[in-house]
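[job 4471] stage=fold_predict status=RUNNING
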Amino acid sequence: MQSGERAAVRPAVSVAVVVEREAKPNRWEDWRFRIVEVLPDEPAFGREPRLLRDDGKTARWLYPGFTVALYRDECEGYYLNLTSGSPVWFVVWRIGETDPPVATPEIVSVSYNEAGRWLDAQERVDNLPLPAETAAWLQAYTDEHYRPEVKQRRRPASFKAPQQR
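[job 4471] inference complete, writing structure tokens
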């Protein structure tokens, strides 16, 4: 099997992200941004980001074209997301240098570990609830591929004989 063939069979979903910008939400902030929705991508959305609405106070943009692919080496992160009680999408986003500024989503994932790495790198990461059908899809993949590491209890050195330390 060629590497391109393997990539073609990798489980994935296409999604779009909706971002909201609020002007002057309080006296300390000029702008507030939030990820409003992650939804299935549709051909009608096109490939380019577009402004959905702007009433002067609140603006919303649609960013299509994100692919969330599943990888075996991220299964622990999927498992942690699924067993958290409320599985979520993780969305990494950045604020641009324009005036007024615009927030742009960069990556969408369902891996708890991947989100943790982004947060460790000082990235902005928001989360939104994962729909039940997407959670079921992720659960099926995780059940098939995730094998937790067997934890072996290590006896503390202080309980070992001096010659065994």
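[job 4471] summary: The chain has a mean pLDDT of 90.
[job 4471] exit 0
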